[in-house]
Amino acid sequence: MFDWILGVIVAGGLIGVAFLMLAENVAPPIPSEVIMPLAGFAAAQGMLSFPGVVVAGTAGALAGAWLWYEVGRRVKDERLRRFVERHGRWLTLDLDDLERSQRFFRERGGWAVFLGRLLPGVRTFVSVPAGLMRMPQLAFLAWSLLGTALWTFLLAAAGYLLQSQHHRVEAWLDPIAYAVTALVVALYAWRVIRFRARG
């Protein structure tokens, strides 16, 4: 995969970086922890401009986030409510929880989206509940832009500064990704076990 990512960056330049970050948000096995440090390394070698790398990476990732947001938003309220009624235990939601979640995302979902865009293992998936819970589109895009721009800048800067050692970024971030994923799975399992539908 590393050679393929490198080939896309070399052949496609900034468009290749944007394409890879779009793909990373649509197909999570392609890791931004490899893409952006490698793009930062290419900028350090003079093959790409560093600001261009950050802008291209942010644009691609934001497009992918918006795609998943739209997938969630296009689920009709009535269909979502029926799904919650039937499968609420596995969603760890009942209808009261659904209404509270929708209010939260409408009023204060920005921080959830912003922080979610910075967390390995969560970045791709935070867009779906934001869409399902009808978070306002402009607010979603604004908070996603902030989180995504910060994430891509940090990864590209790490690759730029480390240069030939850019692969160490992924090694540093892997334990964090595993820890966050394990925590999310544990919290989900705990909520499924303890779930009690009201009413």
From TrEMBL:
One of the Pfam families matching this protein, by short name: VTT_dom
Subcellular location: Cell membrane
Membrane topology: Multi-pass membrane protein
Any one GO cellular component localisation term in the record: plasma membrane
Primary location: membrane
Top-level taxonomic group: Bacteria
Stretches that traverse the bilayer: 47-69, 140-163, 175-193
Domain VTT: 30-160
InterPro entries: DedA_domain (IPR051311), VTT_dom (IPR032816)
Keyword hit for Protein biosynthesis: no
Entry annotated with the keyword rRNA-binding: no
Keyword annotations of the record: Cell membrane, Membrane, Transmembrane, Transmembrane helix
Name under which the protein is recorded: Alkaline phosphatase
